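Dear colleague,

Thank you for sharing your sequence with our group. We've completed the structure prediction you requested, and as agreed, I am returning the results in plain text so they can be pasted directly into your records. Please verify that the sequence below matches your submission; if there's any discrepancy, let me know and we will rerun it promptly.
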Amino acid sequence: MPGWRDEHSSVIAMGIIFVATIGLAMLLSLPFMDMGYQAFEDPNDITIPILYIIFILAFSGVILFLAKKKKLGIIQALVLFASGMALMYVLVVPFAYLIEFLAGDYVYIYNEELSYLLLFSCIGAAAFLTWILYKYPEWYVVDSIGIFVGAGIIAILGISLGILPIFILMIALAIYDAISVYKTKHMIDLADAVVEKRLPVVLVVPKKKDYSFKNQKSLKQGIAADAKREAMFMGLGDIVFPGILVVSAMTFLGDQVIVRGQTFWEPTMASFGVALCTLAGAMVGYSILMRYVLKGRPQAGLPLLNSGAILGFAVGYFLIFQDFSMGIW
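Please find the predicted structure tokens below.
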């Protein structure tokens, strides 16, 4: 019975992290839209997901090459830098609200000076958190920073990509994930390198109280020896890509507003309802995925998670909007 409780408690805890990360992204997407954080001028450009897929394949190839050459320090530097940049963008929101609260009307008179204060505050805080991650990469530090990094990425891409480009991206990456885990198995090599350097692109939930991520042994060796795992691991991408569809549904199925020649999207109750259905579908996919994970073998997360999110979106869209256009046309 204790073993059963440990296993299922970790599944529930990872599910909470999954929902919390996407929920935080939904909250961040609103001020990000107001701040002009959209990454692409045309969110419905279908060449964007193609370029993303090429970039992800190339980046995976570089990381895999560096891992095979035992250049893990370079991998660590790249990921920590990217994490620090993502943290900087996420921290803009709380710092901006804090400065506006403290300054009041002053913020509108001395906007330039306060904008520099905002910039340096975000850079300093992001650098400090990245340093903590480097010096003390315990599982709760990695998870905390991973949640904020993941939420920032989801929010920015979610308000930057329309429904069809995200469908293309999610389907392609689900196929890639399945091939890389079950066929070539190079995703396991990538995960092993990430875990060895304790990087925030993997989320960790311990299965016992005295677990330390800093003492985590090689994943590949544990799999080969069929050893009992001390923690559950999930790649941050397994949360990011279903989450992007959630935020995109909330954003681009809402009302389109033009202010001073610039286009914004405002969420509505209908778009929020489809977003929640999308999240519910992803959680159904998560529940099915966990049934396989509990058997102890590495599993590709995106095929089930992305499929669940897309089906949840389709059901929610039809029930709420009463048509089959899926928001694509």
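Summary note from our side: The chain has one domain: 2-236.

Kind regards,
the structure core
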